[in-house]
TrEMBL record:
The gene is meaB. This is Methylmalonyl Co-A mutase-associated GTPase MeaB. Belongs to the SIMIBI class G3E GTPase family. ArgK/MeaB subfamily. The keyword Hydrolase applies. Gene3D superfamilies: 1.10.287.130, 1.20.5.170, P-loop containing nucleotide triphosphate hydrolases. GO terms for molecular function: hydrolase activity. Keywords: Hydrolase. Its EC number is 3.6.5.-. SUPFAM superfamilies: P-loop containing nucleoside triphosphate hydrolases (SSF52540). Pfam families: MeaB. It comes from the Bacteria. It is an enzyme of class 3 (hydrolase).
Amino acid sequence: MAETDKTNQSAMHVMGGIKSQHDGVGKSSVKKFSKKKPFVIDQAEYVQEVRNGSRLHLAKTITLIESTVADQQTIGQQLLKELLQYTGNTIRIGITGVPGAGKSTFIEAFGKMLCDQGYKVAVLAIDPSSSLTGGSILGDKTRMEELAKHPNAFIRPSPSAGTLGGVHKKSRETMLICEAAGYDVILVETVGVGQSETIVRGMVDFFLLLALTGAGDELQGMKKGIMELADAIIVNKADGSNEKLAKKTVAEYKQILHFLTPSSPNWTTPALAVSSLYKTGLDKVWETIQTFKKEMLLNNVWQYRRKEQTVAWFKTMIVDRLYDDFFSSTDKKQEMAQLEGLVRDGQVTVSQAVEELFSSNSKQ
Ligand SMILES: Nc1nc2c(ncn2[C@@H]2O[C@H](COP(=O)(O)OP(=O)(O)O)[C@@H](O)[C@H]2O)c(=O)[nH]1
Ligand SMILES: [Mg+2]
């Protein structure tokens, strides 16, 4: 377990993603040496240390995975390949909801409950403020203080660069590395905006929508699609004077869910009330998730979904790679900028501009 960790006693010692220099594999440290000698590490030792529960090696490995420096990336992939055999026996849970719904508070309370029960919990936190500040988790970190101190927890902030609707391109691989390190519950927090829900749904087993009271009001603005992605709807902040209303909201959601297509076959999406602040109803959520796992394993949906998710990820990575490769030459970027101007002024049509961009590519 995490006790084997010699270097960092607290999960607060998370690395700040690819921008971080703390673990010595950041960009600048390599820049200094990369021309003279290639970046090398003892891969067998890394695999062993990650397996032994060293947070430091786990963080370093994730940094390599996220790296945009070619030789670091290659080593990251080699480590992932070695570690892949130890992944899989876990529960991957995605948590979504509008900002302020209480996702971070829920993750902290729920994660801590599981850690206290002996589970090892990894959190991939996606901080909505990161794209503005260029930083990572900081806005949320304060709310995960307790969880971060727990020896069974590991919190990994999502780097601000390379996000697909708030989810880092490498989040899936980060999740796998955490699993190989022995984390059995993976919690992925996503911002309730953009494409992030669909992307996170595509990498987790169970998708949880955190809602607030007043289903009627909220539904006005909430896309039906998001509700149909969820395996459970959790009405948070069911405490104090809000408790009664929360119970009423749960009843309203149940009615609505009745008319929607459940996200998973043979599963009736439940609605539950919790208070993340007062830690009530959390055990019921865990019970629901475990029932879900049991049933989905029985009807093979669990295994099927994971395989399909891997294939879908493969396809996404291909598109990503094509895009990156195409625009990796400065010429292409410049050409696009010029064409953009022409398109804006109406001098060429969009199709013509695309044609031009690609035809000049094939000439090279
Ligand atoms: N009363 C009450 N407040 C809560 C609860 N959960 C979260 N909050 C508060 O709601 C605010 C937003 O919470 P946060 O976890 O940051 O939401 P996020 O944006 O979805 O991650 C904070 O001020 C929390 O203290 C709850 O169960 N009850
Ligand atoms: Mg949050």
